[in-house]
Amino acid sequence: MNGMKRLAVLALGGGIALTASVGTAAAGTQPYTPERICGSGFQVVESQPLGKAGEARVYWLNNGPSNCVVTLKGDSYVGNSVKISASLTTGATVKVDGPAAYKYYAGAVKADNPTGECVVYGGTYGSYKFTSQPACG
Fold first, then answer.
1. What pLDDT, in 10s, does the model give residues 39-84?
2. 49: part of which helix (H) or strand (E)?
3. Distance (Å, rounded) from C-alpha 68 to C-alpha 58?
4. What Rg do the C-alpha atoms of the chain give, in angstroms?
5. E strand or H helix at 38
């Protein structure tokens, strides 16, 4: 996992929460793109909104033999404590990152897609959830 990618909220006694920022982007700015997170050669196949008014979006990307899923918080929602996740199912294999109070994004969740297997991607942002229909081929 990329060490600069996100922030988790740590709960301490007495209900106090500390956060430790990693990276240089200011709160309210999403410095990452799905392609940057997944890596070279990955292109967005599909995406779906999570929440209202651009709170988050889950992306499914592909580079030929591999799939990648990320859930990004929207610009003005970067840094909030809402938990997010990203999931990818290929055949009988399920991979999930989160849910956790990541600052920027959940993922990259990657898996190869053997010919003929179905791909299902999804993500969450708080109580909002998206799960795709199977894409088989």
1. 999 999 999 999 998 999 999 999 988 999 999 999 999 999 999 9
2. strand 43-50
3. 11
4. 15
5. helix 34-38
